[in-house]
């Protein structure tokens, strides 16, 4: 893998939940706005928006033969149906605004992920594009921190591959009476357990490159999501002990 470009955008985590964390519009998949493919994308998005409430996950296709498009939408398993529905609604609107002329597009939010393309990608693990958000602040006790983070990640990764957990693992480690480490992993539901495990292993394997000693970090792939913070961020939310969320930066890795 090579680093194609690095964006360093200071962001604050308190920013509106409607802001996407990133998007990808594939070049050379241009379509015109009146084309059948474009119409099928709109049909697919309408179906995704109306069906996401059922389970928080939709994998579907729209159209026939050369005009067919495949799509997948999923929310994080801890997010409420209401927040999920509103995240996917925003995603469906925003992906068309950001990638108006592309038949292959993806958009990442903290609560949800949406993707469509003309290839049937459903069921295949994909870590070709990674978005890494990291806290600019570092921990003061890296050795102990990395041990605790590694142990917590091992635990929640093994939770995520238990079928009844549907790709979700989350947990926390109390570092002191005042500081708790929180972590969550989520695979997309189309993945077999072994591919979920692989996606999570790749994400965690990239910690030394992008999250090294950071107080918080998020890895966003098309097949899995991994995040840890020194403050509560997953649902149900722990009461916040007032830890500063700090400033984050993002790297997009192809
Ligand atoms: C595809 O569309 C984008 C605008 O969305 C344009 O910048 C680009 O040149 C187009 N590429 C091709 C190969 O037509
Ligand atoms: C999904 O469910 C939420 C909460 O039950 C509701 O507010 C929302 O209108 C529903 N959305 C759709 C598209 O049905
Ligand atoms: C954290 O560590 C990185 C690399 O080790 C360094 O570049 C960065 O300046 C540190 N951040 C702070 C806020 O000290
Ligand atoms: C908050 O601090 C109290 C002690 O002051 C501790 O008992 C509790 O576990 C902490 N909660 C979290 C979420 O860290």
From TrEMBL:
Signal peptide: 1-18
Similarity comment: family membership: Belongs to the cysteine-rich repeat secretory protein family.
Location(s), subcellular: Secreted
Keywords: Repeat, Secreted, Signal
InterPro entries linked to this entry: CRR_secretory_protein, GNK2, GNK2_sf
Domain of life: Eukaryota
Name listed for the protein in its UniProt record: Gnk2-homologous domain-containing protein
Pfam family, one: Stress-antifung
CDD domains: Gnk2-like
């Amino acid at each position: 893998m090579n680093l194609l470009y690095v964006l360093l955008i200071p962001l604050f985590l308190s920013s509106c939940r409607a802001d996407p964390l990133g998007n990808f519009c594939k070049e050379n998949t241009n379509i015109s706005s009146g084309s059948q493919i474009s119409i099928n994308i709109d049909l697919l998005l309408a179906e995704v928006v109306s069906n996401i409430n059922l389970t928080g996950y939709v994998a579907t296709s729209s159209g026939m033969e050369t005009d067919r498009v495949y799509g997948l939408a999923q929310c994080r398993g801890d997010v409420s149906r209401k927040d999920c529905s509103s995240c996917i609604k925003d995603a469906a609107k925003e992906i068309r605004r950001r990638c108006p002329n592309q038949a292959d597009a993806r958009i990442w939010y903290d609560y949800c992920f949406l993707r469509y393309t003309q290839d049937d990608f459903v069921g295949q693990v994909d870590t070709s594009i990674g978005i890494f958000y990291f806290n600019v602040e570092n921990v003061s006790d890296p050795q102990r921190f990395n041990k605790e983070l590694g142990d917590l990640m091992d635990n929640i990764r093994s939770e995520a591959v238990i079928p009844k957990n549907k790709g979700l693992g989350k947990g926390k480690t109390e570092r002191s009476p005042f500081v708790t480490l929180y972590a969550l992993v989520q695979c997309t539901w189309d993945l077999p357990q072994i591919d979920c495990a692989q996606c999570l292993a790749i994400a965690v394997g990239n910690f030394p490159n992008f999250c090294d000693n950071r107080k918080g970090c998020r890895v966003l792939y098309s097949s899995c999501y991994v995040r840890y913070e020194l403050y509560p961020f997953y649902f149900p939310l722990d009461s916040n002990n007032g830890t500063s969320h700090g400033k984050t930066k993002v790297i997009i890795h192809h």
